[in-house]
Automatic annotation (TrEMBL):
GO MF annotation terms: oxidoreductase activity, acting on the aldehyde or oxo group of donors, NAD or NADP as acceptor
Domain of life: Eukaryota
Stated name of the protein: Aldehyde dehydrogenase family 9 member A1-A
One Pfam family, short name: Aldedh
Gene name as annotated: LOC106174689
Domain Aldehyde dehydrogenase: 46-504
The keyword ATP-binding belongs to this UniProt entry's keyword annotation: no
Family membership: Belongs to the aldehyde dehydrogenase family.
Active-site residues, Swiss-Prot/TrEMBL: 275
Record keywords: Oxidoreductase
Organism, as annotated: Lingula anatina
InterPro entries per UniProt: Ald_DH/histidinol_DH, Ald_DH_C, Ald_DH_CS_CYS, Ald_DH_CS_GLU, Ald_DH_N, Aldehyde_DH_dom
Keyword Ligase found: no
Length: 515
């Protein structure tokens, strides 16, 4: 018996016990969540349908009806109506309900984890780590909610001014497919803590856990309509983006889509947070602890099948330690078990889709043609278990003999492909590291901390790791510089992105006016 969340259509919320025939929690129910309940999209246009495919097996799990104009309108209207109630509550009241929602997620953690594995194909221990860490984000913002306040400014003669930090209204959220629960949590938690309501569209490739989170909020007592989920592809996202009652968009995805979202927001002068792609540098100096540096390089390249925006895919290694570093790296990478994401010892699960796997393999082919040498991996692996034969498993790929002009070194691959690039001097490596339009993340491995901080100050990116990589503790802002985005998430900074300031002048004397 697996426990799962389900909001009964009658509006009575309860944790139901249910036996899942295929061990798939909450998948066979409607996947739009509007005004406190799961609903089918009313859009009957068959061209709007998309298939939900399990990456691990390549099996079509079900068809999902995209939200059309009427569905988007209904979701935004529900969020608009809920806004008055939700924004009128104190931060303390909102925070208590959010804490309860986080508790409900924890009580049902197994279901969330399994759903995330089914959706993404990532190893189960990674999915567990994601669910736990991002539920902490909800708890964090639940604690932040009562602290959101304005300021008081004394003025001459007893007059004064004060500021109010007010919510924006209905916020739109759109997510990518690599961290589906994270996107729903990182966007909804600060939005709701600040008193906004939200309509969220997960990626069409990973629709499940955002709906489960929506159920947890309602079950905790968060009013219906505060957090809604709509399903669909670009068309649904555009409808949400252009809706006149949407006050702000928070988007995670590729640079080209981010540019479209921003252009659409400009039409309505809407605020925007953009978490976009990257091509980040990881610099390993000659004095680095090479064991740690190799672990860092793996964390920076091979988690979630390499489909991580902040990945440090350009690994710059000082020429003095290149052979030793590659030996350690190779030995560790060879030990990574590829296969069933539901096995606890699996280190490499399935790539999100056939199309994406082919794109990644295409980049490796181009790299070979441009003169790179494959030190390890870079091919499709078909696991022994016949049920996994339809999944797309790729061996983590280490490329050597790379140079900065190669396509694979310049473009975001978003797959397990690490390019190793030798360097000689600090000045040279900083210049080469910054030679990109992206600026999401970067890393430095060295025992010389004064050098580390000097290099950190010169690197053009939003998140830099010293002697580690790809860790995201809640409270530390995460966001990109340059074309990697605008604004940041997962920290107090988000409060500024989800509120607006109102200044109030209060006169204590007669009006001083010549008229
Ligand atoms: N900076 C960050 O925090 C992160 C950035 N990413 C980036 O996301 C990309 C991979 O994710 P994908 O899902 O392939 O990106 P994508 O840009 O293709 O799609 C992202 C989302 O936007 C929606 N969408 C597509 N076209 C749209 C349009 N015209 N209007 C509105 N919505 C639209 C999609 O349905 C999906 O939900 C990579 O570039 C990666 O670096 C991914 C995760 C985190």
């Amino acid at each position: 018996m697996l426990r799962t969340l389900c909001v009964r259509p009658a509006g009575v919320q309860a944790v139901l016990l249910r036996r899942w025939t295929h061990n798939i929690p909450a998948i066979d129910q409607p996947l739009n969540f509007i005004n406190g309940e799961r609903v089918e999209a009313a859009n009957t246009d068959k061209t709007q349908e998309f298939e939900l495919v399990e990456p691990a097996t390549g099996k079509v799990l079900r068809k999902v009806q995209s939200a059309g104009k009427g569905d988007v309108n209904r979701a935004v209207a529900a969020a608009r109506e809920a806004f008055d109630v939700w924004s009128d509550m104190s931060g303390m009241e909102r925070g208590k309900l959010m804490t309860k929602a986080a508790q409900i997620v924890k009580e049902n953690e197994d279901d969330f984890v399994k759903a995330e594995v089914i959706d993404t194909g990532k190893p189960i221990w990674e999915a567990r780590y994601d669910i736990q860490g991002c539920t902490e984000t909800i708890e964090y913002f639940a604690g932040v909610a009562p602290t959101i306040m304005g300021t008081h400014l004394p003025l001459p003669g007893g007059s004064f001014a004060y500021t109010r930090r007010e919510p924006l209204g209905v916020c739109g959220g759109i997510g990518a497919w690599n961290y589906p629960y994270q996107m729903a949590a990182w966007k909804s938690a600060p939005a709701l803590a600040c008193g906004n309501t939200m309509v969220f569209k997960p990626s069409q490739l990973t629709p499940i856990t955002a709906v489960m989170l929506a159920e947890a909020y309602v079950q905790a007592g968060v009013p219906k309509g505060v957090f809604n989920v709509i399903q669909g592809e670009a068309e649904t996202g555009t409808l949400l983006n252009l809706h006149p009652d949407i006050a702000k968009m928070s988007f995670t995805g590729s640079v080209p889509t981010g540019a479209k979202i921003m252009a659409n927001c400009a039409k309505g002068i809407k605020q925007v947070t953009l978490e976009l792609g990257g091509k980040s540098p990881l610099i390993i100096f000659g004095d680095a602890d090479l064991e740690n540096a190799a672990k860092g390089a793996i964390l920076a390249n091979f988690m979630t099948q390499g489909q991580v925006c902040s990945n440090g895919t350009r690994v710059f290694v000082h020429t003095s330690v290149l052979p030793q570093f590659l030996d350690i790296l190779l030995e560790k990478t060879k030990r990574m078990k590829i296969g069933d994401p539901f096995q606890e010892d699996t280190m490499v699960g399935a790539t999100i889709s056939k199309a994406h796997a082919e794109k990644v393999l295409g980049y490796i082919e181009i790299a070979k043609n441009e003169g790179a040498e494959i030190l390890y991996g870079g091919e499709r692996v078909i696991p022994d278990d016949p049920k996994l034969a339809g999944g797309y498993y790729l061996g983590p790929c280490i490329l050597v003999g790379c140079h900065d002009d190669m396509t694979v070194v310049k473009e975001e691959v978003f797959g397990s492909v690490m390019s190793v690039l030798p360097f000689d001097t600090e000045e040279e490596v900083i210049r080469r590291a910054n030679n990109t339009c992206f600026g999401l993340a970067g890393g430095v491995f060295t025992k010389d901390l004064s050098r580390a901080h000097k290099v950190v100050s010169k690197l053009q990116a939003g998140s830099i790791y010293v002697n580690n990589y790809n860790v995201y503790p809640v409270g530390v802002p995460f966001g990109g510089h340059k074309m990697s985005g605008i604004g940041s998430e997962n920290s107090l900074e988000s409060v500024n992105h989800y509120t607006q300031v109102k200044s109030v002048y209060v006169e204590a004397n007669d009006v001083d006016c010549p008229y």
